[in-house]
Specification:
Elements: E1 2-5, E2 8-12, E3 37-39, E4 47-54, E5 67-72, E6 75-79, H1 80-84, E7 90-100, H2 104-107, H3 111-115, E8 123-134, H4 136-139, E9 147-152, E10 184-189, E11 202-207, H5 226-229, E12 232-234, E13 245-249, E14 255-261, E15 281-284, H6 289-297, E16 326-328, E17 331-334, E18 349-358, E19 367-373, E20 378-386, E21 395-397, E22 403-409, E23 417-427, H7 428-432, H8 438-445
Antiparallel strand pairs: 1-2, 2-8, 3-11, 4-5, 4-7, 5-6, 6-9, 7-8, 8-9, 10-11, 10-13, 12-15, 13-14, 14-15, 16-17, 17-20, 18-23, 19-22, 20-23, 21-22
Keywords: Signal
Organism: Helicoverpa armigera (Cotton bollworm)
Protein name: Peptidase S1 domain-containing protein
């Protein structure tokens, strides 16, 4: 059934889909590592597709369906060529999210309904485009490899539809300045031209970054300046589609966008012996983060490593434990350090992870009380609680200590229910350890 609410179309499908154990969002389980191949569960909901609509009959384009990435609740990221080079006779249509995870308000589901086992039905979100912003290097200089921002007509309202994260650093090179050997995760739809998004599957492919000299060994792209060449990378694999993202899973659980595929020829026929094609080209996103941030927020980039302009404010000091304790998607964040990423979270490590499961025989009301004790010289600075729905408000005491107390209130329920708890800490002795001062060295020598 189609619903028309402020030009936002949501397609609901009859039937029950079990999404109670899904915690896949920007604050994901750090231990999750997807296998290569099709994905069967609801994951990577920020991956969408761009439709080109025929100006006369309103039908979508028959073979060109670029991919887009939700990076804030009202902006998606795409390649500049997909946003500007529209096929003749077509116009920009809708951005489609095939796995739109609705929250309780959109599903019109109450707490009592959830306790009785009622769940939200799957949905497909069709969102019109309000504006397109091309990067100046493409708009004014015609750079072939560049990015564009598309503003949605209204923000995505579901609190479970969290955007993908922009990178805080260049993941193409490691800390020593050399080409990274870490395999990245490439996410895309299974079919070349997604049509039936209700049944459309996603698939994961592990790719590796190739040396830069291989990017132009077989095919030297035209109209690419030296500047944009430095914003390109090449990977292993083949058959990539324009706009499909290559991601890095940070140790804190965040999925960060490393690059967008520029598209290219399909995989060669293994039965035909031909010269290998040029490796697929990708647009690195890290150099564009200041421009993306300024375009969305309307202000110049400042301390971007400390404050996320897309709604996740990360203060560094608090007089009371409850400050900055709240929900982010399916996760309740207990502690200021739960919002840290990249270099800010290098000193954090997860030392506790447990999944709780209950299947009562009758209607049950239960409140969990946990005491998490860390190892010697370890201070607990963050506790995360992952739940199917944002039910109740957990409470935590005595953070920044070796022992924390956690209370998780649950509603009355009569069906199987799962949630998980993670505890993060850091070694308190690392900050106190330092090299001997010159004065002490002189004393020892004497």
């Amino acid at each position: 059934m189609w619903r028309n609410i402020v030009l936002i179309f949501v397609l609901c499908v009859a039937g029950v889909v079990f999404v109670k154990c899904q915690f896949f969002d920007c604050h994901d389980d750090p231990g999750y590592s997807p296998d290569e191949g099709p994905l069967a569960d609801l994951q990577f909901t920020w991956l969408g597709a761009l439709q080109y609509i025929h100006v006369k009959n309103g039908t979508p384009h028959y073979f060109r369906v670029p991919r887009v990435i939700l990076i804030s609740r009202q902006f998606v990221l795409s390649t500049a060529a997909d946003a500007a080079q529209i096929p003749e006779g077509y116009a920009l249509g809708n951005v489609i999210f095939g796995d739109y995870e609705r929250d309780e308000a959109e599903c019109h589901v109450t707490i009592d309904d959830i306790a009785a086992g009622v769940e939200c039905e799957p949905a497909v979100l069709l969102m019109p485009i309000a504006d397109v912003l091309l990067h100046p290097e493409y708009k004014h200089f015609g750079a072939k490899y560049s990015v564009a921002l598309m503003k949605l007509i209204t923000p995505v309202k579901s609190k479970y539809m969290l955007p993908a994260c922009l990178p805080y650093r260049d993941y193409v090179v490691d800390k020593n300045g050399k080409l990274t050997k870490t395999k990245l995760v490439h996410v895309d739809f299974s079919t070349d031209v997604p049509r039936d998004f209700i049944e459309e599957e996603k698939e994961v492919q592990r790719v590796s970054i190739l040396p830069r000299e291989l990017c132009f060994l077989y095919d030297n792209p035209e109209n690419v300046t030296k500047m944009t060449q430095n914003r390109m990378c090449c990977t292993t694999g083949c058959g990539f589609h324009s706009g499909a993202p290559t991601m890095m899973h940070e140790h804190t659980g965040h999925w960060s966008i490393v690059a967008l595929s520029q598209g290219g020829p399909p995989c060669p026929d293994p039965l035909r012996g031909r010269a290998p094609p040029s490796p697929p080209h990708h647009i690195m996103i890290h150099p564009y983060v200041p421009w993306i941030t300024a375009a969305i927020t309307g202000k110049a980039i400042g301390a971007f490593a400390k404050d996320d302009p897309f709604g996740f404010i990360m203060p560094r000091a608090s007089a009371y434990d409850l400050v900055a304790h709240g929900w982010v998607g399916h996760w309740w964040m207990g502690g200021l350090r739960c919002y840290d990423r990249a270099e800010s979270a290098d000193d954090m490590f997860k030392f506790y992870h447990e999944i709780f499961q209950m299947k009562p025989v009758a209607e049950t009301f239960l409140t969990y009380y946990l005491e998490i004790d860390a190892a010697h010289n370890t201070l607990i600075i963050c506790v995360k609680v992952g739940m199917p729905y944002q039910l109740g408000q957990p409470r935590i005491w005595e953070l920044d200590s070796p022992l924390v107390k956690l209370r998780i209130p649950l509603i009355r329920f009569s069906h199987q229910y799962k949630f998980q708890v993670e505890a993060w800490g850091y070694n308190s002795t690392e900050s106190s350890q330092s090299s001997p001062s010159k004065e002490s060295e002189d004393t020892v020598e004497d």
